[in-house]
Amino acid sequence: MTAGTETTSIGVTRTQIDWTPYLAGAGIGVLSWAAFAIADDPLGITTALSAVAGFAAMPFAGTEVVWHNTYWTQAVPGLSYGSLFLLGVMLGALAASVRARQFRFEAVPATWRRRFGPSPTRRFAAAFVGGAVEMYGARLAGGCASGHGISGTLQLALSSWVFTILMFGTAILFGSYLFGQGEDRR
Amino acid sequence: MTIPVTGPALLPLGIVFGFVFGWLLQRARLTDTNVIIAQLRLRDYTLFKVVLTAIIVGGIGVFALHSGGLAAYHIKPANLLAVALGAILFGIGMAIYGYCPGTALAAIGTGSVHALAGAIGMVAGAIAFAFSFDWIKAELLPIAAAGPVRLPELTSIPDLVWFAALVVGGVLALLALRRRGAHS
Q1: Among residues A84, A169, B42, B172, which one has the fewest Cβ atoms lying within 10 Å of its Cβ?
Q2: Whole-prediction pTM value?
Q3: Closest CA to B40 of A96, A141, A10
Q4: How far apart are CA A94 and CA A92, in angstroms?
């Protein structure tokens, strides 16, 4: 799958073209065909994940409250194609990383450490908040980087193109600000 | 087995399709948050290359399947205020988290513990959304709501022209990006 380039660091040598991103992207495109034609359910993550979240809410909100919630009556918690898809994503990445000898436990990634220091608590707290904000945004918009960004844009949906352009624009501006600040001091 | 597959027969397909998706995300190095942050800082273009290629290849195939009556479109409604607000929140959250939801779940499979912390955050965000949904549905979703509209209908430009433009524009963008991605 790789084009003979090293995969140890972030980049590859400038003179060589690494075909992996194009092959992987094409693979996701072909997988989309199957998702549409065979499962009639485009690739996406957050619709299924919010249904799974209904289970997490049950212990403190009560099962009755969850089952009668307006949102969860349309995104029904349960064993479904979507929830198993989420499990499959984790298993697939696990298998690929083990096979490539790239599986490793990571608490604080290098990019984060350079900018915000080595504290795992700090990284975990930020990831939690970032994940919560991201998910809330995804549900508000009705999709995520997969559901809108790939499945929606490839159908030429207006909502998905608006989402994808605004989302990447915001992420680039805010990400550049967040990780660009004070870079020289550390 | 009939196509599309429905009912219990669909369940194992969820695992299989998910497995392939997770495998591809790992092979593309998108389970590495450093690669995603480097993309947001415009120092590495792996993420854009993968997404653009997926849109081009996926778009052509799904258009062909749809034209042949073999696939139905699933268009999300353009509740433009909610979509715009959601996109901005998503972008901010993604920069902090360092993953989008799909790459986050895949990253958990590769051993990323902080991706797991963020996934618990995603579940919390989903719960918060479900409990605020009644208000959002009444007050936000109806504002600037254009319905499940596609660009061809919106512009009265035929599908074929749009897809041709998507392929040409996408390939040109990929060619422009092909030598990028060497910084770290």
Answers
A1: B172
A2: 0.92
A3: A10
A4: 5
The residue whose two tokens read 């919390």 is B124
The length of chain A in residues reads 186
Q: Which residue has the tokens 């975990």?
A: A124
How many angstroms separate the CA atoms of A111 and B38, rounded? 8
What 3-state class would DSSP assign to A126?
helix
Q: Please indicate whether, in this complex, the C-beta atoms of A28 and B86 are within 8 angstroms of each other.
A: no
Instruction: Inspect the interface and report whether the beta carbons of B54 and A85 lie closer than 8 Å.
Output: no
Distance separating alpha carbons of residues A80 and B11, to the nearest angstrom = 6
Tell me, what's the ipTM?
Answer: 0.95
Measured between alpha carbons, how far is A162 from A144 in angstroms, rounded to an integer? 12
Alpha carbons B71 and A55: distance in angstroms, whole number: 32
3-state secondary structure (DSSP) of residue A18: coil
DSSP helix/strand/coil, B79: strand
The SS3 call for residue B150 is strand
Quote the pLDDT of residue B181.
63
CB-based contact B117 A124, cutoff 8 Å: yes
Q: Exposed, middle or buried by CB within 10 Å (0-12, 13-18, 19+), for A78?
A: exposed
| pLDDT grade for A181, boundaries at 50, 70 and 90 | confident
Question: If you count them, how many residues does chain B have?
Answer: 184
Query: Residue A115 carries which side chain, given as an amino acid letter?
Result: R
Q: What is the 3-state secondary structure (H, E, C) of B85-129?
A: HHHHHHHHHHHHHCCCHHHHHHHHHCCEHHHHHHHHHHHHHHHHH
**Which pLDDT score is estimated for A11?**
55
Nearest to A134 among B54, B94, B151 (CB): B94
In the predicted structure, residue B184 carries a pLDDT above the cut 90: no
Which residue in the set B17, B87, B179 is minimally distant from A31, CB to CB? B17
- Cβ–Cβ gap B121/A129 under 8 Å: yes
Looking at residue A136, its pLDDT comes to 98
Angle, nearest 10°, between helix axes A120-141 and B101-109? 140
Q: Could you tell me the two tokens for B56?
A: 């081009």
